[in-house]
Design goal:
With about 90 residues, the protein is α+β, with helices and mostly antiparallel strands. It contains two helices and two strands, in the order αββα. A two-stranded antiparallel ribbon has the order 1-2. Strand 1 and strand 2 (about 40-45) form a beta hairpin.
């Protein structure tokens, strides 16, 4: 069951957040994580948390104004993309 993470936000605030996330998804975001001797660089360009946040905002917009927006969770999943996480070091 979807949850509205943006209760109390206005349409203008949600649209501003959506715009920022869409720009971040287009340009990409690089974060760097350092662990004892190992260094990992992750890029969330066009995937990852951005797509989840965009869907949450679209859901909040639909809850706020159901006549103007479509529920993003009512659409069938037509395409999937694998996303793997695991250890940052190679096995010996």
């Amino acid at each position: 069951m979807p949850v509205n993470y943006y209760v109390g936000k206005s349409e203008d605030e949600l649209l501003a957040l959506l715009d920022g996330l869409q720009k971040r998804g287009t340009v990409g975001l690089v974060s760097q994580v350092s662990l004892v001797g190992n260094q990992t660089i992750k890029s969330f360009q066009n995937s990852g948390p951005v797509s989840v946040e965009i869907r949450r905002i679209l859901y909040a917009l639909w809850k706020l104004l159901p006549d103007s927006y479509v529920n993003p969770y009512s659409q069938r999943i037509r395409r999937t993309r694998p996303h793997y996480t695991g250890p940052t070091t190679q096995p010996a």
